Amino acid sequence: MSKVKIPRKSTVVDMTAMTDVAFLLLTFFMLATKFKADEPVTVTTPSSISEIKLPETDILLLTIDKDSKVYFSMDGDQNRITLLEKMAEKYKLTFTPDQKKAFSLLSSFGVSIKQLGSYLDMDAEKRKSYKQEGIPSDSLNNELADWVLQARYTNKDLRVAVKGDGEAGYPVVKQVIATLQDKKVNRFNFITSLEKADN
Amino acid sequence: MADIDTGGGGGKKGKKVRGKKMSTRVDFTPMVDLGFLLITFFMLTTSMNKPQTMEINMPVKDENLTDDEKTKIKASQAMTILLTKDNKVVYYFVDAKTGEPGTPLVTNFGKAGIRATLLKENRMRNDRVDSIAIYKEQLQSNKIKEEEFREKVGAIKAFKDGLIVVIKANDDSKYKNLVDILDEMNICNIGRYAIVDITPMEVEMLTKTPL
Fold first, then answer.
1. Which of A105, B60, B79, B165 could crosslink B193 through cysteines, CB 3.0-4.6 Å?
2. Between A18, A174, A188, which is nearest B56 by CB?
3. How far apart are alpha carbons B85 and B154 in whole angstroms?
4. Record: contact B53-A198, CB cut-off 8 A
5. What's the confidence (pLDDT) of residue A162?
6. Nearest to A152 by CA among A87, A103, A91, A94
7. What is the DSSP string of B24-71?
8. If contacts are CB pairs under 8 Å, which of residues 182-211 in chain B contact chain A?
9. Is the Cα torsion angle B117, B122, B125, B127 positive or negative in sign?
10. Which segments of chain B have a pLDDT < 70?
11. Cβ atoms of residues A197 and A48 within 8 Å
């Protein structure tokens, strides 16, 4: 039998096209990425069929974790500094420029204003392991109300969003809603995750 | 080829020093590897979807409001839903004649539970609710415009004698229950509902009701 000789083909593939695609996608994802701000607590939001999207800017976010602690966050670095100055004035406290800088970079926090200074002095690692008590929001010492009020003075277009854990108890939710209503915030949003209506 | 002669004013003649011709091909494989590694990283870290939200409108709290000015609703159209522990829902109606609260009924969340009741009660008082589903279909098949849809649905939901749901949660209930019941309001097309603080009478009613 005669052997059929298969002509050998080069195994080298032109990678240029693949590189092009890879870097195109890379560029896209790099530009589209907005890193998730690291939150002090993980919150599992309840699901709803609502499909309204939350705007990205001018958001005051109140996070309620499953232990019913309230955390506060607001976007805009400059706004946060102004807010801290206003709160400092109200509570007769002073913050160093370093602390203000730290506050402007902070994503969300849940400490009372008295502890805020020492909390801001910590470095990022320490802050993570620090056990936050939540912002006092009860009727005796309602710091949350002041935060909300001053935040609204700082940024007029602010929308309030409440991101609660499904397991958070109702009393704290009621407290937060009452605080918001008290500060004339009658429209606010509950952040939920998407669910399909089963009907 | 496209060499530039840098010989300079005809000095040496003859022997040109030529570098060895190297292939211009570069092995792209590591670069592609790196590219895809980074793509994978960014794909996994990207959070594309913006969070969903539910809009809540609370009435303006006005301390100066007298009892006469407060919104009055007819007993026959009000339904009170109480949220309590273990994801249970208790609801009752107020008797239109006597003004006494009726027997509380226990149910749960879900299709056969509170949703069935809400749909039934809503349909009974507002016979146009069913057309919302038709409008929704028309909207999906682009037969009507979004504004038109909103206007029509809004008109149906604002029906004066329609069902009004009063939502009250006791301290044992979870935030999830509140979101769930608000979600049911959306699903069942109930236009008018309010979140109200629970009264002592209702707390007592809950303790008496076997869950």
1. B165
2. A188
3. 34
4. no
5. 85
6. A87
7. -----HHHHHHHHHHHHHHHHH---SPPEEEEEE-----TT--TTTS-
8. 182-183, 186-187, 195, 197
9. negative
10. 1-16, 47-50, 61-73
11. no
Contacts (Cβ under 8 Å, ≥6 apart) of A5: none
Do the beta carbons of residue A162 and residue A64 sit within 8 Å? Answer: yes
Average pLDDT of every residue of chain A: 81
Model confidence at A199, pLDDT cuts 50, 70, 90, reads very low
Give the pLDDT confidence score for residue A39 in this predicted structure: 67
Whole-model pTM above 0.80? no
CB distance B57 to A55 below 8 Å: no
The model's confidence at residue A98, banded by pLDDT at 50, 70 and 90, is confident
Tokens of B184: 């049911």
Domain chopping of chain B, boundaries: 75-124+163-208, 127-160
Residue of B nearest to A176 (CA): B175
Reported as type and span, the H/E element at residue B166 is strand B164-169
CATH of domain B75-124+163-208: 3.30.420
Which of residues 170 through 199 in chain A touch B, CB cutoff 8 A? 170-171, 173-174, 177, 180-182, 184, 186-195, 197-199
Structure tokens at B119: 């749909």
Whether residue A160 is predicted with pLDDT greater than 80 in this model: the reply is yes
Q: What is the Cα–Cα distance from B123 to A182, expressed in whole angstroms?
A: 36
| B155 CA: distance to closest CA in chain A (Å) | 20
Would you list the domain boundaries of chain A? 56-194
Average the pLDDT over A40-61 and give the result: 78
Contact in structure between B79 and B163 (CB atoms under 8 Å): yes
Residue of chain B minimizing CA distance to A30? B42
Q: What whole-number distance in Å separates Cα of residue B100 and Cα of residue A113?
A: 48
Q: At what angle do helices A170-182 and B175-187 cross, to 10 degrees?
A: 70
Q: What's the rounded Cα separation, in Å, for the pair A63 and A40?
A: 10
Flag whether the ipTM exceeds 0.85: no
> What's the pLDDT score for residue B1?
45
CA-based angle A133:B182:A172, to the nearest 5?
A: 20
- Do residues B91 and B207 lie in contact, with contact meaning Cβ atoms separated by under 8 Å? no
Backbone φ and ψ for B14, nearest 5 degrees, come out as 90, -95
- Determine the angle formed by the axes of helices A97-105 and A113-121, rounding to 10 degrees: 90
